[in-house]
Amino acid sequence: MLAEAVVAAEDVPPFVNSAVDGYAVLAGDVGDVPVRLRVVGEVAAGGFTDRVLGTGEAIRIMTGAPMPAGADAAVMVEDTERLDGGEVLINKTVPRGASVRGVGEDVHVGTELFAAGTVVRPAVAGVLASVNARRVRVYRKLNVAVVSTGDELVSDGSVLRPGQIRESNKTMLLPLIADAGCRPIDLGVVRDDEAALEEVLRLAAINFDAIITSGGVSMGEYDVVKAVLSRIADMRWMQISIKPAKPLAFGLLASGDRRVPVFGLPGNPVSSMVSFELFARPALRKMMGHADLDRPTLFAVADEGLPRKPDGRTAYMRVAGSFGPDGRYHIASVGAQGSHQLAVTSLANALAIVPDGNGIEPGGSVATMLLSIA
Ligand code: AMP
Ligand code: MG
What we know:
By secondary structure, the protein is of the alpha/beta class.
């Protein structure tokens, strides 16, 4: 994202040039066609001719080549026939200025091209290159550290012993962080051990811009993230009336004169993903100066019903959706909605925001957050 406005230091294009492969002519010569003109030169892109075009003359010209002095239009080669004896037959009348690109038609020197806060999308990068803005001030990407916690987690491919499971949350969170425009830092898996976790968190606060933990923030006996962060950071422990992802911790961990945000995401993989989407991602984008924080949300048609039970919470149901020929976004549940069922969730590209109650009838309309559009 640009940290300063960019003003064009150059015109684009920098000189008058031809928009076609063909012949540079005087429009006054081609009022009556067909007409024969004498070919007195040739100019290619990157070339130049100082031959001044006179009446009755044409110069062979390529797209992007500078227009010869005197010429005021170009005729595309498809509308011409090359004749023996150095002549060309022009078969089409063109007005003055036809197929001629003027100086600064794309960008005028001195124009403010981009305001501070503009995201440097690929086309923006291309424009910057086109005006020789070789160095621009941009915001630094946030370095966002992720640590998974849990004695049960195995991430090195070894055989599972009784009670162990494969780690999956940080493997999912790292690319979600990259997708949010940040640089993900993998701090690995930390055991449910307060001293070990405290050391990792303090080091992370020294070195990185934000910290995301997974697991250990709910009501369990070994919720060491809760124990450690309560002691070393200024935390808020929340129970949010949503499903999944009810428990959430957020706080600031002081490191010197910096205060580093810490997001304590729940351990259940689906909860982890949903709370990243709803809370961590917009916060990280805000830290990076984005005005637009949330994923796009629209009203979708629930092709099948989305039943649920009243429980005082808003459900973020995992759905697969796409735009139909009616121009509306159509969704259907991907299936099981358990907060431990990441496999089914991985098929979702949107979250249907289903208010407390008995759900959505088939054909009903429901606010839906798009996680990806393809
Ligand atoms: P916790 O929030 O630590 O109580 O964990 C809740 C559930 O999520 C437990 O079933 C954990 O085993 C599981 N879990 C926690 N962290 C991870 C992880 N990084 N990958 C996969 N499952 C996890
Ligand atoms: Mg745990």
